[in-house]
Amino acid sequence: MITHMHCEGFKGINGKDFTFKPLTVLTGTNCSGKSSIIQSILLARLAEQTAVSLGNRAANSQENKTTIPLNGPFGLRLGAASEVFSFDSSRKGEMQIAFDNGTKEFSFLFQSDDYNNRYLTCTIPPEFLFSHSTGSFTYISAIREGQPDLLPMQSHPESTLEIGYRGEYAAEVLRVFEKRTVAEPLRHKDAGALPLTKQVEAWMGEFVPSVALRVETCSVLDAVGLRYLQGGAESEWVRPSNTGFGLSYCLPIVVAGLLGSPGSTLIIDSPEAHLHPSAQSAMGQFLARLAALGIQTIIETHSDHIINGIRLASLEKNHPFNGKDAQFHFLFRNESGLVSQAIEITPSGALSHYPDAFFDQTEIDLRRIVEARRKDS
Questions:
Q1: 7 near 14, Cβ under 8 Å?
Q2: What distance in Å separates the CA atoms of residue 253 and residue 269, rounded to the nearest whole number?
Q3: All residues at 6 or more sequence positions from 90 whose CB lies less than 8 Å from its CB, including other chains
Q4: CA-CA 20 to 30 A from 149: which of 95, 120, 217, 277?
Q5: Architecture of 4-131+263-373 per CATH?
Q6: What is the rounded CA–CA span in Å between residue 24 and residue 291?
Q7: Has this prediction a pTM greater than 0.85?
Q8: What are the pLDDT digits (tens) for 82-92?
Q9: Mean pLDDT of the chain
């Protein structure tokens, strides 16, 4: 589990440090660096993953190098080397991203001898930062598969199946592991000890009421078909394109979460996408539950409902989440550059402090509405 990260020479977060906890929430103004933090983690994961796939990762070696693309994997679109190196860094042609897990440091050195290259050479640490078993690392981007009637299948053994950064393989993973037992702390109160598919349906019901799922394999097309049932047994099964986007956007998060285990990593960009405010709050509580189980959960969000759901989880007696395991980072830029403020949850469920522009727009707008109405009266 990552507890700390330091970046040198990477984009707009050059020279910055960030603390991580079981649940880490990245918030802040647009273009402030939230995505860069996630991208730095993805680059480190990609470096390890590439070394594993090429078979050139020597155990306990002090010099392990691999080459990683800047575009493609995880949906990254970083361009050329010139676009990832910080303009204000003294380290020309290289950047370093260092992580700490509480006991060891893991340093990744990325280099390029040509700023036009669309790849980097990376020297990885002698030990892995991340686990590389199925479900041990999942990144879900803000742009997910919308409402396709057919979803792709992977040409991998069960041991290496993934959800996909767009959630495109969530239906297939659900079909393959439909009978898997879900860890007891993640079982929905209405699903008891039922296996994965029923657990997913129960948790999906927290966001969109009365949902049932059916996944069918279409081997000829190397695809799986997904259908939803809402409203009980007398309703009809419908294709995703005849339902709301909220269902399709929630599914990969729920499947990835329920298949997670202590020590795994789940990164989600905009978990609130296409969700009603009440469902956003429920999503915050669900993500807090994952963190309480030991799944390191890192999210980027613009939703105060997600944050309030996390705060609520810290106060509910029957919820396993402890507020001390949450870390919020509020990022913004001023004339001096990037500013990052760390915010925590107090034992009373409040936040340790409320910086200006930290989800205060509702109060600002309401005040202006009242003032405008007063002037018109």
A1: yes
A2: 10
A3: none
A4: 277
A5: 3-Layer(aba) Sandwich (3.40)
A6: 9
A7: yes
A8: 999 998 877 88
A9: 91
Classify each residue of 350-364 as buried b or exposed e, where b means 16 or more C-beta atoms within 10 Å of its C-beta: ebeeeeeebbeeeee
Q: Note the pLDDT tens digit of each residue in 268-292.
A: 999 999 999 999 999 999 999 999 9
Q: Answer for the pair 272, 280: CB distance below 8 angstroms, yes or no.
A: yes
Average pLDDT (343-354) is 94
Rounded to an integer, what distance in angstroms lies between the CA atom of residue 322 and that of residue 311? 9
Q: Taking Cα atoms as reference points, which of 153, 144, 146, 134 lies closest to residue 217?
A: 153
Closest CA to 8 of 113, 96, 119: 96
Mapped onto helix, strand or coil, the DSSP state of residue 48 is: helix
Chain region(s) in the chain for CATH 3.40.50: 4-131+263-373
Residue 374, judged by CB atoms within 10 A of its CB (0-12, 13-18, 19+), counts as exposed
Neighbouring residues of 358: CB distance < 8 A, sequence distance ≥ 6: 27, 330, 343
Alpha helices per DSSP H over the chain: 34-54, 170-176, 196-204, 245-259, 277-293, 304-315, 361-376
Question: Could you tell me which residues are beta bridge partners of residue 228?
Answer: 213, 238
Lowest mean pLDDT among 55-59, 141-145, 207-211, 305-309: 55-59
Tens-digit pLDDT profile for residues 96-106: 999 999 999 99
Residue 57 confidence (pLDDT) above 60: no
